[in-house]
Amino acid sequence: MGGADSVSLGVETGAAADSPRPSAENGVAAPPVRHRDNGVPLARFLGRVLVVCPRCGGRALVVPRPGLPALRNATELLFRPRRLVCAGCGAVADWAAPMRGNAMVGAVPGGAEDPFFRRPLWLQTRCVGHILWAYNEEHVDALAAYVGAQLRERGGLSPTRAMFARLPAWMKTAEHRAEIMAGLKTLRTLADRSTPADRSDAAHEHGDRPRPYGSVYFRGGGPY
């Protein structure tokens, strides 16, 4: 989890809603009446991460490097080589997982920065005394589905890295629902902006980097 002024907004595109969603409002998909948590991890949102460009301060994109084989599961996203690209200034940088003997050490998701280049996330805003953040637009919509639901159910699976269960109390209470939904609308608007002048005043480091938990991957002659 993050520090006192931030939160790991760990939700998943695989989290199911038992009731159909109403139409989107102000750019964020309206939440279902009921939300079911199937225990999916935050890593599932790491396919595409919006970050602050290290050169110009505008919006840059962190994605897996091109030419890689098809993804087999979400966990592989913690180990895949990455590329940071900025359409505004042309900045480019590459990342590869560090090695520990014959194993690759995976990135650790969580906190208000991307887990590869350690750049501040582009999608950040202040909300009820905390920092509300997301990796991308899908992440924003998934958060809205959870926060806005009137009934929340947990599935039978409870893996260690399931993120809905790890959200802090302020994200779960109905008392803050309206403020958080408004914050998520702000993030969705930010996702469509890209210049340095569009950057949120909350989009910087917050000292909330998660503790490493030693995720490793033995390649066995794999493609990376």
Explain the overall architecture.
The protein is an alpha+beta fold and about 220 residues long. It has three helices and eleven strands; from the N terminus they run βββββββββαβααβ. Strands 2-3-4-5 form a four-stranded antiparallel beta sheet, with no helix packed on it. It has a three-stranded antiparallel beta sheet with strand order 6-7-11, with no helix packed on it. Strands 1-10 form a two-stranded parallel ribbon. β8 and β9 form a beta hairpin.
Tally the helices: what do you get? 3
What composes the largest sheet?
4 strands, antiparallel
Structural class: alpha+beta
- Uncertain segments are 1-26
List the helices and strands and how they pair.
Elements: E1 34-37, E2 49-52, E3 59-64, E4 82-85, E5 92-95, E6 99-100, E7 103-105, E8 123-127, E9 130-134, H1 137-148, E10 151-154, H2 169-172, H3 177-191, E11 216-218
Brief descriptors of the model:
3-stranded antiparallel beta sheet, disordered N terminus, 4-stranded antiparallel beta sheet, 3 helices, 11 strands, alpha+beta, single chain, 14% helix, 224 residues
